[in-house]
Structures are given as structure tokens and as C-alpha cells.
């Protein structure tokens, strides 16, 4: 058994997601655990080249974590043949050109989403990668979280029978920024800067829905900008031009109906910031990012509607907690390991740039549906 090196360019290493989730909690955690275990018994050790626009930030990060290689010149990084994987955690409006250059340089691609600002550009990326024979992967982190892994286990076991419907609630209150600082960046609320909850969350809902429940065949959505004035990181008032809430209905090829509410203007009355209720003929589940509770058909109560009498039944007490039954690691880290294994072992990776393009398409179609006030069908997307 041997240790094998793999060179990874990390572009956007000083950004919020690039640094916290991908560098510290994923790639450095992989390094600290001794690498990624491969099927042949070898281990794969990441060798990182950090890229960003702020030299001082990059130097500080590199020194903090004992990393020697960093640059503010992405073109120079792409010229280095011994760094074969390019990862992109930039803001969306900078991603397209960098991914094109990385594909042209012969790099394998792993990237945050959305992969582009428009479906046309996202599809072009997928086709460029296919024509170049590029191995690609797009972050689908929610699928690797404990709650959705438990949900996958329930689906695979046949627990639900026929899945009839899925209802999802996502969101929390994001402060406006006047008397308390906002916990999301201000560009999220400006459409001219690529902001909006549809652009941010519909790509997530696309891969969660299609991987767990089935292909989306049509979409109806309503969007809103509930809070029209916010304050930015410097305390300056600005007009919010992007949608901060979206209410979507997705019909699937198998007949399942998915309803998804997404909002940055909602106060949480849930156990987790996102929860999905899945109802089937044989049982139901309520699943968050970590927890999962089930109610089988045999243990389902028989409520009787009587609004004149207070109902004292403890409905939440009728649900059963799903045990972990395994040790769950950080979802971003687990997907990094999954992608790297697929890449070095020469196996096709399912969450590729075409999957990323489907997510961008769902966001684009969701906005179109809201603007036109109608349901829109989705064709099968071929690469």
C-alpha cells in the first residue's frame, strides 16, 4: 500500500465557503486524517495550491495552515501540470470564465454551484467538458448529510411504499442589517449581482429531488421580495432587487408532487433550518439535515376533525426517531472523498457539470414561471 499525491488548485480559498467548508473542513481535514482511502488500499493525499485575489489573505491562510503554495494568478496556477484538479469556490459571476480556462488546460473539474449564471452557459460548460473528456463534479453537499442519508436508507428499504408527496420548508430570518448585522452577504439581495433565493436554492432542490425522488417534469413557482430595503456590510442602505422568498411546486415523472418553500424572511418553528416531510402509502418521514423521524402505517393515529373541541393528542409523540447506525462525517468532506475516488479510479461521477446545468435550468425556469404566472414543463436534458 502506497501514498499517492494529487495536486488540487483551490480557487476562492479565502472566501467564506471556499475557506471554511472546502479548505478547512474538507481538504485539510482529509490531509490531517492521512488522505483518502482507495479501493486498492492506497491512500490519496491532497497537495493544495491556493488561489485568490487578495495576496495578504492568502499569505495569512497559508501560514496558518502550513501551506506553501499560493498565488493570485489563476492562469499561472492552471499552467502547472502537477496540479491536475481545479476547484472553484468563487462568486457565481466569476465562475464561467475560470471553468472554461480550466477545461482548456486539461484539468479535472470540481466546482461549487450554480455552475453559471444562465442555463445556456451552464450547458455550454457541460458540453465543453464532455467534448474535452474532462472528469467533472459539482458540489451536491445536501445528499451527503446525515438526515438525507437516513432518508436514502428509508427509500431503499421500501419503507414508504409509493411516495405520494414531499413538502419542504427551508429558511430563517436574515436580519436587514440596520440594527443587527445581516448574516448573509448583501449581494445575495441584488439581482444585478447574481443574488436571489431561487438562484441560490433551486439548484440544491433540483439535485435533492431528482436523486431521491425522481425527474422533475414541470414547475410552478411564485417569488417575492418581501423586504425591499436592506443595509450592506458598510452600513449603507440599499434597495433589495432580488427575490428573498420562493414558493415552488414540482411535479415528478412518477407522479409524486413536491412542494418547496424557501425564505430568508421566516422565523423558524422547526427542529432544523430545512425539513422535508415525505408521505407514502406505507409510511411517512420528517427529515432534516441531521435528524429523521418516521411514522409507519401501522402506527398512524386516526384523527377526527372537530374544531369545537381542543385536541389534546400529542401528534409529535407518535413519531419514531431513526437511529444513526453509523458515524457521519462532514458532508462537504465526504463528497470531496467521493469525487476524488471516482476520479483517480476512473469511474464516471454522477454529479457532473450536466447535473449542475440541470440545477441552473430549474432556477431559470422557476424565475420564468413566477414572472409569467404559469406552469412550465421540463424536457429531458441530454448532454
Can you give keywords for this protein?
383 residues; 31% helix; 18 strands; alpha/beta; globular
Account of the protein in words:
It is built from 9 helices and 18 strands. The model has no long low-confidence stretch (mean pLDDT 96). The chain starts with a strand and ends in a 6-residue tail after the last strand. The chain has 383 residues and is α/β, with parallel strands linked by helices. α1 (16-32) crosses α8 (331-344), α4 packs parallel to α5 (119-132) and α5 runs antiparallel to α9 (353-372). The strands form 3 sheets. The chain has a 9-stranded mixed sheet with strand order 17-16-15-14-8-13-12-9-18. Strands 1, 2, 3, 4, 5, 6 and 7 form a 7-stranded mixed sheet that branches. Strands 10-11 form a two-stranded antiparallel sheet. The chain is 31% helix and 24% strand.
Q: Could you give the topology of this structure?
A:
Blueprint: E1 3-11, H1 16-32, E2 36-37, E3 43-51, H2 55-65, E4 70-71, H3 74-78, E5 85-88, H4 95-104, E6 108-111, H5 119-132, E7 136-138, H6 146-157, E8 163-171, H7 197-212, E9 216-224, E10 229-231, E11 237-239, E12 245-252, E13 257-263, E14 274-280, E15 283-287, E16 292-296, E17 320-321, H8 331-344, H9 353-372, E18 376-377
Parallel strand pairs: 1-3, 1-5, 3-4, 5-6, 6-7, 8-13
Antiparallel strand pairs: 2-3, 8-14, 9-12, 9-18, 10-11, 12-13, 14-15, 15-16, 16-17
